[in-house]
Specification:
This protein has 11 helices and 15 strands. By secondary structure, it is α/β, with parallel strands linked by helices.
Amino acid sequence: MQKIGKQTIKFDAPPTVSECASIVGPKEADGPLCKYFDQTLEDEFWGEKSWEKAESKIIKETVSTLIGKSGVSTADVDMVIAGDLLNQCISSSFGLRDSNIPFLGVFGACSTFVESMSISAICVEGFAKNVICATSSHFCSAEKQFRFPLELGNQRPPTAQWTVTGSGAALISKSGNGPFITHITPGKIVDMGIKDANSMGAAMAPAFCDTLLTHFQDTGRNPSYYDAIISGDLGHIGKEISIDIMKSHGYNIKSNYNDCGVMIFDKASQDTHSGGSGCACCATVFSGYWFKQLQNKKVKKILLIATGALMNSTSSQQGESIPGIAHAISIEI
């Protein structure tokens, strides 16, 4: 692999996204992408005593499903790289503690899935043959930690997004027939001073645009090179802000740009306000929908840019603004 431009890595022997798996909750099961997920749940607890335990179970079963679908034994998996939104990433570490696979816990907020895919690709280009990357989130556990306990019944403003309940996982391999990871563009932290935890799309959109602009400049590509440019979870408001920012820089992305948070819910019938969010938003939509589009060659080149708000409950209580981050990965057939 080699560094090109300011902050992009190009793979000369591109790693393969060998297989993907996804599990989602009941609200996601009522959405427009239901048929693309491996499993859907009837309730948020899934037989567990708490939402946090349910989330750990979801990521555990998603990784198990991935291993079963891939035909690769756990003994042939060099590492699992995973993360989530809960303090100290307990969903991932508790959910995967019995996997007997070397584990790296990572945190990039809602950008964690592409962050873990990027690290996996670098590992595969180096020493590893197979690396699993996975993320999870849960609406109920995230609301309790970042905003308000559900029992309070607080009214959600129109800018608020709905944290996706679910998990997505991908197997990144040294060999295979594709789709291939050809480039990664790690993002920089961008903070525009936004403090409203119910306006995540606005907080993350500048980071998305910064990474997208850098990717175009580093690679010499333009929006028309890709069949689809996909952001992680900017939602309806963040998506429109991003289109406007990119237009001001001379790039028209409107025709082939979409957002996972926009895709996963039906705005008219599901009352999710500005759309979906959470670590599982990008992970489930890619693992469930976009991976199948690549496999079937309905699209051949996509740029997946997962976005994250690098905050926690303490930073909000202390009046801090919300820094944004966005990581990009080019996946091609």
